[in-house]
Design goal:
2 copies of one chain form a homodimer. Chain A is an alpha+beta fold and 591 residues long. Helix content of chain A is 57%, strand content 12%. Chain A has 18 helices and 11 strands.
């Protein structure tokens, strides 16, 4: 009952009007002319809306089934996965040395958004493979890369990440999975991992598990942890598949959503594994992938909200109910469409202005990753590392909130599974949890990222906002953007100042405000994005020849964000400035 | 995997320390001494935690099944329903003339909260019966009352409300179900109704449907609508069951939650119905029940959040993960419990301070209904009518938000159905939708209730806050409550002023801020409740002899609410004061 249309025009606006990719000095960006990116995005959009989207409800309804150790994915997934591979989509931003197309991560992000909007659970099979590909690409030996990467680039083999155990998720120092060194240089991996997305399925010839485990001699806590490549089928010297490895799926979980993806309990019973990267430095190896993986989850937050929004918008235009208080808008019909009602519009504008702002922030983050990887830009790397917990935590919280808001537009029908809106809310919910629950993102932001490199990156961020505001001050049309942005940035500085002054006395004063700070900064980031987009839209209007309706809607949507979302900044600051006292007042026993 | 413990102490505190029931002049309240209410609440709590709660997950997993026109409820529901009836619980606050126990609505509310917390879907069978009972009790003829009420008071027969049709929910003027008058004074009812909770099931001998339909001669829109009693089995003159009526269940819906309750499509094919109340005044008859029904849904909002909170709290105390940043709290264990972490506490305190505040507001609302019904207090009736959309809309939004927050405490386990936290979130979601979606509550509040009776009730509310603050000014300990309450009440007045001044020019300026106003007022109400509770707690501490730990925790929790929830008031005011302009700026086609 749902549909999806890829937002190609909005993406083109971001790539060309806002980020000005062809004018960038990031290697590879000059080739991204509008004709080329449009062709790629249109093609990806077709696959998303025609092939992946129709399977979204199927995946939710049928889920994955475990029988005799084999997981069956929902009907149609197999054929769709073949189409995805044949189109070369998984290879889009992979290294040409291993069969990739070598496009920037930014393009992979744009295409990824479409696939997630259309079918989040389905896209995880390739998304996790991309994460494992990156880990091997950065940390693997030449032989490991040659063995695994070509097959993973094509998604003939898929990948997984194995971190969590029943008794430890965030606190990986408690890990029990063991790695015993063997005479041939390999390891025997033994232990149980849980919540392994795409841990077992029928879409690929082989599954390459990346497993964190403790090898002897590493010491206590996370220091003893190493990362291992543990393939489902061992790979022979000639690249053919060999023996089945000693690992199996214990069960698949019944979850709130993303039913189309198999979330597995994985049992490793002396399975053969190969060290990836340095011994006892597995956490570090995982963390180099973290920004990318977390931005990918932050993308899920708004991508699902985008799909939910599109359907809520259709419903609001179609459903006739009540009359506009200012006079009938559909006088010949039995009632007016929902969209005439101010509160329905408030809801839709909340969604629209969030989704478009989050897309801009995510694309910007992706371009910073390209700058970091492709031209070694350390400032870009520092900045994206600062933005990552915001993109992950803020965008997934808001994305879920907006999917719930979209569901609300449907009234009672929103609660009925048949209409598809419940699935968006249920699917979006996981993004707040996995890849580091959002409380951990907030902790990472406040306890690590703010102070990283002597606070250089956060200072750089404030400087960037200041410069933008200064450069724009002449343009009266921009006052509705720059004035609230300036105020919000000032409030954010006040929050940072509060942490510095009071966190010294008691670190809880900072940690008790961490979640609010993550949201506060999220609004400042989206405020900055909207100011940039408005500036680009005015520039395009001044130049003439563009799609005037689109550009004016862009500006109006931005004005909504500044007027209606940014006031949350003051609330978060007020909460932060109350410190830890009321948060920590009760003894645990007094709860 | 979940548990529930009835919050008897907190309820006793509300009844006796805050509402001072035995000192009230509301008929029946003098009998509610602490020993009696404690006995009732303890007994209800046992049924809730021992019988209803264990069936909550069963109901969610099994759902209801429709086979050959018969609906089978989940395993165990039938036996539990018998126990509920045998305990006389459905009769608690019903009229003794028809077999009820005649206790105040307030006591029914307290007991109802427990049953909802324990098993929301199960409790709907009796909850809807109570609504139908009230409608017949107020609008029925003596003969109708004698025929239906005794069996409904005992829940031998259950009841339903039939309003919605496929093409109309909020806008009931579009209704198509027809009522054709018959020679014997009855009507033939023909049409389709959807979203009928408990429309068909195996828990009762008979089901008494109350159906809105259009009888000839009533004119267009809602003016032509009348209310009818349409029993599943016709009732013979001697009270025995007669022929099966011409109505049937078309299907049961697959929903996001409340799987244990059968949500039915009901088909009426010339079914025999009897006019209830006046012809063509069915909407009015429905609306007299509305406050009660909506408060009942507002109660669901926080009651489910209470259950979710209890489990999240257990998990936060049990789960060992990470170390307190201020030093290990569980040095002999492998890690500290989650509850040591400031952000986990922020989350738990958000939940706790909301739930306890909402309970106070709901109990207060229930006492106003008693004052209105039992002593004809018009001011109380006006006030509760003003508070109703807030109790329904604000509390269900926040209740869902808090159930989601509780789920978040569990990390990945929160997303796995087996742990039960997903169910709380999925169940709580419906309360934002049914009995008037929350956008409609906001509309009702701003477009009707604020101006009702010349604004008398909202003025009375402000006066009440002012008087409370004035009466408390001498007590320095209360400053942390009265200062923020005063500011919040001022902000609420500013919002009302904005509506008055700008809504004249364009009503959209008020409607675009209606949702924010509902939340703003919700926080002011809970702020007032917390100030009252703090005052009562200080009084009890001063008097001595009470449970000091409980009373001090109460005050600390209230201080959290004032410090950390009330700052939302300023945000809502700022959003309201931006008016309709950015909300209505886009043409529908430009979205």
């Amino acid at each position: 009952m749902t549909r999806y249309t890829a937002p190609v025009q909005d993406m083109q606006f971001l790539l060309h009007d806002v980020l000005n990719v062809t004018g960038s000095d990031i290697p590879g960006y000059a080739d991204l002319d509008a004709g080329f990116t449009s062709a790629v995005l249109e093609e990806a959009g077709k696959l998303a809306s025609q092939v992946l989207e129709p399977l979204n409800a199927v995946g939710d309804r049928e889920g994955c089934v475990l029988e005799n150790g084999v997981v069956r994915t929902p009907r149609g997934f197999d054929a769709a996965f073949r189409q995805l591979k044949e189109g070369g989509w998984p290879a889009l931003d992979c290294d040409p040395e291993y069969g990739g197309q070598g496009l920037p991560y930014l393009m992979g992000t744009a295409v990824g958004e479409m696939f997630v909007s259309a079918n989040m659970a389905f896209n995880m099979y390739q998304g996790l493979t991309h994460g494992a590909y990156s880990a091997i690409h950065v940390h693997g030996t030449a032989a490991q890369k040659a063995t695994y990467l070509p097959k993973m680039v094509s998604c003939d083999w898929t990948g997984t990440m194995n971190l969590t155990e029943p008794h430890c998720g965030t606190d990986l120092g408690l890990m029990r999975t063991k790695a015993e060194p063997q005479a041939d240089g390999s390891y025997k991996i033994t232990g149980q991992k849980i919540f392994i997305s795409a841990g077992e399925h029928d879409l690929a010839e082989n599954i390459i598990h990346l497993v964190l485990a403790k090898a002897p001699g590493g010491g206590e806590g996370t220091k003893g942890v190493s990362l291992f490549i543990v393939p489902k089928f061992l790979v022979n010297a000639d690249g053919s598949l060999g023996a089945r490895n000693a690992l199996s799926v214990g069960k698949i979980e019944e979850k709130m959503g993303i039913h189309g993806n198999a979330t597995c309990v994985m049992n490793y019973d002396g399975a053969t594994g190969y060290l990836l990267g340095e011994l006892h430095k597995g956490m570090r190896a995982m963390f180099t992938m973290m920004n990318e993986a977390r931005i990918g989850v932050g993308l899920q937050g708004y991508a699902v909200a985008e799909a939910a929004y599109q359907n809520a918008l259709d419903y609001a235009k179609d459903r006739l109910q009540g009359r506009a208080v200012t006079g009938a808008q559909n006088p010949t019909g039995p009632a007016d469409p929902l969209i005439v009602h101010p509160d329905i519009r408030r809801n839709l504008m909340d969604q629209k202005s969030f989704v478009e702002g989050a897309r801009a922030l995510t694309f910007w983050g992706a371009s910073l990753i390209d700058a970091s990887h492709r031209k070694g830009d350390a400032a870009a790397e520092g900045l994206v590392s600062l933005l990552t917990p915001v993109i992950k935590g803020f965008q997934t919280d808001k994305g879920f909130e907006m999917a719930v808001a979209a569901q609300q537009v449907y009234g009672g029908h929103g609660y009925i599974e048949e209409w598809g809106m419940s699935q968006f809310a249920r699917d979006a919910r996981i993004a707040m949890i996995y890849e580091g629950a959002n409380g951990i993102q907030a902790l990472d932001l406040v306890a690590r990222k703010l102070a990283a490199d002597g606070g250089k990156h956060i200072m750089g961020f404030f400087e960037m906002v200041k410069t933008f505001v200064k450069d724009t001050e002449g343009d009266e049309r921009m006052k509705g953007f720059t004035d609230p942005l300036k105020q919000a940035s000032k409030d954010m500085q006040a929050a940072g100042m509060y942490f510095m002054q009071n966190g010294m006395k008691n670190p809880n004063n900072a940690l008790a405000g961490s979640y609010d700070f993550m949201h506060l900064m999220g609004h400042v980031c989206l405020g900055l994005m909207w100011a940039r987009m408005a500036k680009a839209a005015y520039a395009a209007l001044d130049q003439g020849g563009g799609d005037t309706d689109f550009l004016q809607a862009k500006i109006a949507t931005g004005r909504y964000y500044m007027a209606r979302h940014l006031p949350a900044v003051g609330m978060h600051l007020a909460r932060i400035q109350t410190g830890a006292e009321t948060v920590m007042a009760l003894d645990a026993a007094a709860f």
